[in-house]
Amino acid sequence: MINYERVQSVLEDRKIDAILVSDGYNMRYISGFTGATGFLFISKNSRKLFTDSRYTVAAKTQAPDFEVTIVDGARNYSALINSAIEADGVQTLGFEANNFTYAQYEKFKKDLNVKELVPVGNDLSLLRVKKTEEEIANLRQAEHIGDIAFNEILGYLKPGATELEIAAKLEYIMKCNGAEKLSFETIVAAGVNGSKPHAEPGNYKIQSGDLVTMDFGCVYNGYCSDMTRTVCVGKANAKQREIYDIVLKAQTTVIEGLKPGMKGKEYDKIARDIIAEAGYGQYFGHGLGHSVGLEIHEDPRFSVAEERIIEAGTIITVEPGIYIPDFGGVRIEDMLVITEDGYEDFAHSRKDLIEL
Questions:
Q1: I need a labelling partner for 213 at 20 to 30 A (CA). Which of 8, 176, 228, 351 fits?
Q2: Bridge partners of residue 20, in order along the sequence
């Protein structure tokens, strides 16, 4: 996935001579380089990759369209960047302010021989919003691995199993089925712990009658998945069923109405209204979802504040939830892509209330 040509539009829009790319995800998207350290320098005439000796082979293999230079042992990137600046006569240099510390900015402001350092906001990250068919295929496979993990974990969800044990088994299953790594820390929340949307799995032992929420994902060929399912170990009581049915209705109603051309906040409102009308609005505090790609949380978001129009090719998670203190919670989440005529849901695991 090499997209350096698209960076030229940022240079033109910002009226800058060159740009310095430091965000690792943007570096991978633009050049193919997956290393954790370095910079891309892109101007109208040059494509350079600066990194250290740990990534010599990887850089030259993964970024064949870039001139690769290995920094010295002191990691004096300023000297290398200045060489590129002088060679191209760069006067204005863009940089990713969201990815810079204040100390880094101050150092480059002092060291680099340019008239102006220009922050480019999230311009480069926004190049990643609309996914290509290759990206969609990777995302689809990542979510498929999640489906496999969910179907297999049902056999381990029994009274006495701890949240940590279930999380470890989910992660093991995903890696056994092609996952490179986790896309985020696995969430397993049983019983009253389900009232915490981002609960950390602990030594709590699942009891009969507990709702168990599992939010998990993996990385396949660099791309993330995200899925949540809530099941009941034993028989669900009336209130658990009520809450589950409300969340499921909110989720399926949003999904059935997915189409390009809506604002992100409009998707959110559909789910939020259903939950509020059922009397549980105060227990749904987070946004409906977010985009996914090389990062687990990407723009656009699907929240009350998202004004952007969602286009075909955008990935969306639909993950409404209800979280009641001292009781528990329910969240159901699928990852989908918006298409020209609707959507494709990458998640195929069942969503009716499973009682084990």
A1: 176
A2: 41, 95
Rg (CA), the chain: 23
Question: 324 φ, ψ to 5°?
Answer: -115, 115
Residue (of 56, 355, 51) closest to 232 by Cα position: 355
Percent of the chain clearing pLDDT 70 (strictly above): 99
List, in order, residues 6 or more apart from 57 with CB less than 8 Å away: none
pLDDT for residue 73: 72
**Domain of residue 334, residue span:** 133-345
Residue 328 burial class via C-beta count within 10 angstroms: exposed 0-12, middle 13-18, buried 19 and up? buried
Q: What residues pair up with 302 in beta bridges, in sequence order? A: 289
Average pLDDT for the chain: 95
Residue 177: inside a domain: yes
**Closest by CA position to 224, among listed 290, 296, 175:** 296
Q: Which residues contact 200 (CB under 8 A, 6 or more apart)?
A: 185, 187
- Using alpha carbons, select from 37, 105, 24 the residue that is nearest to residue 75: 37
Same domain, 119 and 137: no
User: How many structural domains is the chain composed of?
Assistant: 2
Is a pLDDT exceeding 90 seen at residue 22? yes
Q: How far apart are CA 220 and CA 242, in angstroms?
A: 36
Nearest to 16 by CA among 123, 129, 98, 125: 123
Judgement on whether residues 160 and 299 belong to the same structural domain of the protein: yes
Cβ count within 10 A of residue 53: 12
State pTM to two decimals: 0.94
